[in-house]
Design a protein that fits this description.
single chain, 22% strand, Hypothetical Protein Ychn, Chain: A, 5 strands, 5-stranded parallel beta sheet, alpha/beta
Length: 120
């Protein structure tokens, strides 16, 4: 059975430790061989834009751009439809590889066989 982890991160620079934990857990699961889907919601939505992850700083934490790059390369990264709309972020604004999708897609992912979901 495929090991699948869906991580929903709601925190951004407003709660840097929680944000970093979400990215770290997601990228660690990916490195361990799990299929990983990272959802950017709330304040983490800004990290779907080019250069925003590079602005994030947290001492003693892995660089957010490196974690995001790993997730884009080996997993999937999704920006919440409503969160994007509230921030006037459109499909042409996001980093290559980031998709915009809503609750039905999120529910489908977390309800899949073998899926585990975490919310940060």
């Amino acid at each position: 059975m495929e090991r699948r982890l869906v991580v929903k991160v709601t925190a951004g620079s407003d709660a840097p430790e929680r944000c970093s934990q979400a990215f770290t857990v997601a990228s660690t699961a990916l490195a361990a061989g799990a299929s990983v889907s990272l959802w950017l919601t709330g304040e983490s939505s800004w990290f779907a834009l080019p250069g925003r992850a590079a602005e994030f700083e947290l001492p003693h934490a892995a660089p957010l751009p490196d974690l995001l790059d790993a997730l884009l390369a080996g997993g999937s990264v999704t920006l919440c439809t409503q969160c994007a709309a509230r921030r006037d972020i459109g499909p042409d604004d996001v980093i290559d590889g980031v998709r915009i999708a809503g609750a039905p897609t999120f529910v489908e992912e977390i309800m899949a066989d073998g899926a585990q979901a975490l919310v940060y």
